[in-house]
Structure formats: C-alpha cells, structure tokens
Automatic annotation (TrEMBL):
<dbReference type="GO" id="GO:0004639">
    <property type="term" value="F:phosphoribosylaminoimidazolesuccinocarboxamide synthase activity"/>
</dbReference>
<comment type="similarity">
    <text>Belongs to the SAICAR synthetase family.</text>
</comment>
<dbReference type="GO" id="GO:0009236">
    <property type="term" value="P:cobalamin biosynthetic process"/>
</dbReference>
<keyword id="KW-0547">Nucleotide-binding</keyword>
<dbReference type="GO" id="GO:0006189">
    <property type="term" value="P:'de novo' IMP biosynthetic process"/>
</dbReference>
<dbReference type="GO" id="GO:0005524">
    <property type="term" value="F:ATP binding"/>
</dbReference>
<protein>
    <recommendedName>
        <fullName>Phosphoribosylaminoimidazole-succinocarboxamide synthase</fullName>
        <ecNumber>6.3.2.6</ecNumber>
    </recommendedName>
</protein>
<dbReference type="InterPro" id="IPR033934">
    <property type="entry name" value="SAICAR_synt_PurC"/>
</dbReference>
<dbReference type="InterPro" id="IPR018236">
    <property type="entry name" value="SAICAR_synthetase_CS"/>
</dbReference>
<dbReference type="InterPro" id="IPR050089">
    <property type="entry name" value="SAICAR_synthetase"/>
</dbReference>
<comment type="pathway">
    <text>Purine metabolism; IMP biosynthesis via de novo pathway; 5-amino-1-(5-phospho-D-ribosyl)imidazole-4-carboxamide from 5-amino-1-(5-phospho-D-ribosyl)imidazole-4-carboxylate: step 1/2.</text>
</comment>
<dbReference type="InterPro" id="IPR001636">
    <property type="entry name" value="SAICAR_synth"/>
</dbReference>
<keyword id="KW-0658">Purine biosynthesis</keyword>
<dbReference type="InterPro" id="IPR028923">
    <property type="entry name" value="SAICAR_synt/ADE2_N"/>
</dbReference>
<feature type="domain" description="SAICAR synthetase/ADE2 N-terminal">
    <location>
        <begin position="3"/>
        <end position="229"/>
    </location>
</feature>
<dbReference type="Pfam" id="PF01259">
    <property type="entry name" value="SAICAR_synt"/>
</dbReference>
<keyword id="KW-0436">Ligase</keyword>
Length: 233
C-alpha cells in the first residue's frame, strides 16, 4: 500500500478503495514538540484497541466519525477525510496548559466544559486561536465552526459518562475533524490516552501521556490499566 503520511504516532496508507485508508499505530511516544521521545513497546496495540472501542461507541451514539473497523492489533480501516487544521480541546477539569495560561490550580472542576481551538501547525507550535482566527485563516467554513463545537461537546458528554462508568475521569481531550467522503463532518485521527487526560476516579492517579511527559510512572502500565478498566466493564 502507498504510504500517504507518517506522523509521530501513526502511519496512514492508501487502500485499493479510494475512499478508505488504513491507519497503523506505532510504538513511539513523544512530548514537548517531540523534543522528548521514546520507543514504548505495545503502545500502538493498546491505542488502536482503545480508539476502536471509543469510535465504535460514538457511532452507536449517532456521532459521525471516520472509523470503519479494527483490522489487526495495530491497524484500523477508516474513511478518507479532508482534515481541518483545527484541533479542538474540551476541558472538564483544569490540567495542562490552561493552568499556566489562566493561573487555575490543577484539579479545579469547571462548572461546564471549556472548548478551545488550536491551529494545527507544527512550525507555529499549534497556537491557541479563536473563531475569528479560524475564519481569517480559512481553516473551517463559518457554518461548520458551530457544528464542530457542538459535536465536540456531544463527544465529551458521551465519553465522560462512559469513562465514569469504568472508574475513570475524563479530564480533557483533543479532537480532530475532517470532511468525510459523503460531505459530512466527522471526528477523525484517534481517541486514546495519547490524546486524552484520564485520571483514576478513586485514587486520582494519572493514566495518560502525562506519565511520560513528567516521569510520573511507567507509560504502558497506565495505558494498560485504562484498557483493563474498559474491558472489565
């Protein structure tokens, strides 16, 4: 298959069907604009499995996304999508960059979810942007900005309840969106401990990539525990 793109954590291949791509999940962990990186054996398998579970859940709840099926331990088949260069972050609890930008103590529970937009641009280090910036840079049609925000909040509602049922708090997460072959907007990329902050609801232990970022414990152990909790449910 023709390789279309290779990123920090995944490789995208073209298939014989022009409307379908194959995503291969790698074992690479990166942080701080890839200045910190490591090979973590088994990470790709776990992220592919968790992403498959969560994308399937979104389909069951009527939320469009690019997922078709998991085809191997490390691969999922997806619909081709024209990616929007906007990352959407939904925050339920203060953690990460918002604590530094706004001086909010980590762990502060927000009265309602906070939605932020970031310009997906490695050279600019993915800066925080507003809706006017999205229009100025022509990153999304005006009519789709509200749609993307609405979908992100619905994803948050569905995933928050799902994780809570399995003893995990969904602190925040990043979503990417794109235009699917039928012209509709859908969630793309992955939903995994690489893109979500996930805390154990009983102990408060961090089970996501912050373990790697800040040397808080074995990365793969945290990811495995997320998967084990989801499977136990």
């Amino acid at each position: 298959m023709e390789k279309l793109y290779e990123g920090k954590a995944k490789i995208v291949y073209r298939t014989e069907d022009p409307d379908k791509y194959l995503i291969y999940f790698k074992d690479e962990a990166t942080a701080f604009d890839a200045t910190k990186r490591s090979h973590v054996e088994g990470k790709g398998i776990i992220n592919n499995t968790i992403s498959s579970i969560l994308f399937q859940l979104l389909w069951e709840k009527g939320i469009k996304n690019h997922y078709i099926q998991k085809v191997s331990d490390r691969e999922m088949l997806v619909w081709r999508a024209e990616r929007f260069d906007v990352e959407v972050v939904v925050r339920n609890v203060a953690a990460g960059s918002i604590t530094k930008r706004l001086g909010i103590p980590e762990g502060t529970v927000f009265p309602s979810p906070v939605v932020e937009f970031f310009y997906k641009n490695d050279q600019l280090r993915d800066p925080l942007i507003c809706e006017d910036h999205i229009l100025l840079l022509n990153l999304l049609p005006k009519e789709d900005i509200g749609k993307v925000k609405e979908m992100a909040l619905e994803v948050n509602r569905v995933l928050s309840l799902f994780f809570e049922e399995h003893g995990i708090r969904l602190v925040d997460f990043k979503l990417e969106f794109g235009r699917l072959p039928d012209g509709s907007v859908g969630v793309i990329d992955e939903i995994s401990p690489d893109t979500c902050r996930l805390w154990d609801m009983r102990t408060g232990e961090k089970l996501d990539k912050d373990r790697f970022r800040f040397d808080l414990g074995d990365l793969i152990e945290g990811y495995r525990r997320v998967l084990e909790k989801l499977h136990r449910g």
